[in-house]
Design a protein that fits this description.
The protein is α+β, with helices and mostly antiparallel strands. The chain contains three helices and nine strands.
Length: 177
């Protein structure tokens, strides 16, 4: 598949099939693969995202939270005192799954603490969070809300999605994954 550009100017990820045992019935050809735009639409419109981290002692931790998909990255908030942030400080690996088990989107990657975002990014993030959460939760972050920290991003390395198991199972890789 030729490399294409997404809306944020980032290269589209490489599309293929996940590596699963033959007995799962995952097709070997490209027929039925989902386009990356299908996953992006769900990432942009999702309300809750399930975050899975690993505690310093190796035990898993999962918790739902809000997030914003913007320019090919998932931005999320959280105090450094949360279990999620404390886990990510030790091990920045993160898995994020949307709520649906029927229209599945899973991201795997590394997190970074954003620090104080530049004003244009802060304005765009505030607008996305407000559009998603103001009507139902009266959440309207101020543009300077993240000036003292608390903003993180997930840079995906690999993503999985399907809307029909196993025929639509799709795996995308980013960069050199």
């Amino acid at each position: 598949m030729a490399e294409q550009k997404s809306r944020g100017g980032h290269a589209e990820p490489k599309r293929g099939r996940p590596d699963l045992p033959k007995d799962y019935g995952v097709p070997t050809g490209d027929e039925g693969l989902l386009p990356w735009s299908w996953a992006v639409e769900r990432l942009e419109h999702a309300r809750n995202y399930w975050f899975s981290t690993t505690r310093p002692d190796g035990r898993p931790h999962a918790m739902p939270a809000w997030a914003a998909w913007l320019d090919g990255q998932l931005y999320f908030e959280g105090s450094p005192e949360t279990r999620r942030a404390r886990n990510l400080a030790v091990n920045p690996s993160l898995v994020v799954h949307l709520e649906s088990g029927d229209e599945v989107v899973i991201l795997e990657g590394e997190t970074l603490e954003v620090g104080r975002p530049e004003r244009p990014l802060a304005e765009r993030l505030a607008a996305v969070f407000t559009a998603k959460y103001a009507a139902t939760h009266d959440y309207r972050p101020a543009v300077d809300q993240w000036d003292r920290g608390g903003l993180w991003l997930l840079q995906p390395r690999v993503a999985f999605a399907w809307n029909q198991f196993p025929t639509a199972m799709t795996r995308w890789t980013f960069d050199d994954e």
